[in-house]
Known about the structure:
The chain is of the alpha/beta class. It has helices at residues 3-21, 25-33, 39-46, 62-65, 106-122, 149-158, 179-183, 210-217, 227-239, 279-286, 331-346, 364-368, 371-384, 401-404, 428-435, 437-446, 449-464, 466-469, 488-498, and strands spanning 53-55, 78-85, 88-95, 126-132, 165-174, 186-190, 195-197, 222-224, 293-295, 303-310, 313-320, 351-357, 389-398, 414-417, 422-424, 481-482. Helix 16 runs antiparallel to helix 17. It is elongated, with a radius of gyration of 27 Å.
Amino acid sequence: xxxxxDGFMDRLAAVHEQNLEGGGQDRIDxxxxxxxxxxxxxxxxxxxxxxxxxxxALVRDFREASGQISKPTPADGVVMGAAEIAGRQVMIxxxxxxxxxxxxxxxxxxxxxxxxxxAGKEQVPIIGMFDGAGSRMSLKNGAIGLYGYAxxxxxxxxxxxxxxxISLVLGPCTGPMAQIPVLSDFTIMNENTGFxxxxxxxxxxDAGNADFHMEESGQVDLLAGSDEEAMELTRRLxxxxxxxxxxxxxxxxxxxxxxxxxxxxxxxxxxxxxxTYDMHEVIELIVDNGExxxxxxxxxxxxxxxxxxFDGMPVGIVAxxxxxxxGIMEPDSSDKYDRFMMFLDTFNIPLINISDTTAYxxxxxxxxxxxxxxxxxxxxxxxxxxxxxxxxxxxxxxxxSNITMGCSKMGPDFIFAWPTAxxxxxxxxxxxxxxxHKQLAKAKEDGNYDEVYDFLLSTLREQxxxxxxxxxxxxxxxVNEVIDPRDTRKRIVKAxxxxxxxxxxxxxxxxxxxxx
Length: 516
């Protein structure tokens, strides 16, 4: 190699060495003292060893060369490139907090925008890691500000539904950059170091932290106790996703018997319908090896959502939880359902609905919160879902919830019910009081109110029972089959295999207009 080439190689090596140092050892030490890994450490931990191919390594804030800023800006604070995770190709980027406190600069914004566009064209998932103090914006001395930011946002939006998008909030994520994780399909947040805030005054200490966004805003899907756990959650999440919307997620070999019967399912439900039970127990008994990967666990817990497998086949499960607010479908749970359902449909993942709910809550409080509007999103969403859909009704299926959870005339591929299932326009108790109020008033005068009420209620329950409605196959309140609860797993496995090649078309249109 000649001296001429030596010079270029030396310059390139110097760039790479500076990039590895980031903002300097002092800043790296500070990052570690805060319980955080550096951008490069995070990428190395997440991806397969030796698979990361960096892009944009030479990029710098253009003001560095002109002396307008004194601090170095290696890679302009954005480490990015192509990599593999479990042998699957991905595009990945991480904001480097050691460089200008991770604030996003103009060239950094362009870098990410181009990477998202590349991921979309190559049809591979995009993963972003956020740890930065807002935007590095300046309009002085000819600086143009974040010119590339609009392109970044647009590319995220354009490729939504084309490729999976995962964001990890591992430090501060403020200002306009806070919109990126929310635009993504899933957001993972470090509960000790993550902070997400658009702007304005914070009126409580917890505002913007991980618990706040999990429990209050609903803008986080998974919480991690450390950067290391966040990487593990990301790898697990990817296991349920295909590379893009044109592929199906991978089925893996399972050592759990697809015909396994579960005797415990006969004893989970209480004898008295007024009592509750935890739907997690049912889910864990029927999925492969009891492994359920729940999302938004502490947001609207009356509705459970998450991923699992049946005989190795990945599915998304949406289940009402009687143990929380009797499993009602209020606005937050409706939003949670809607977003997850859209993701499943987009990426060809079967939807399993498990229903035991008293429907949408009535009254002034809920009407003011837009319970109709939020519920209408679920109706609109389910009606347009074309992936495989299986419904299982365990006990109560009342009112509008019967429709949104996949009733027989909303187009599920299969609908099963336990013999304990009841279908009704509203709770039988309310119907007894409304329809038989004169008889009940007389019974109160005669002193046998409880006896008359219990008789009317039991008679009505029998009429609303699936054992009665199931006798008419074309009825609105019916199912394909009433099943032995112990055979639930086997039935779902067979239904998934039967619908594996389904092809459902909706009316051709430019786009559907979902209720806001």
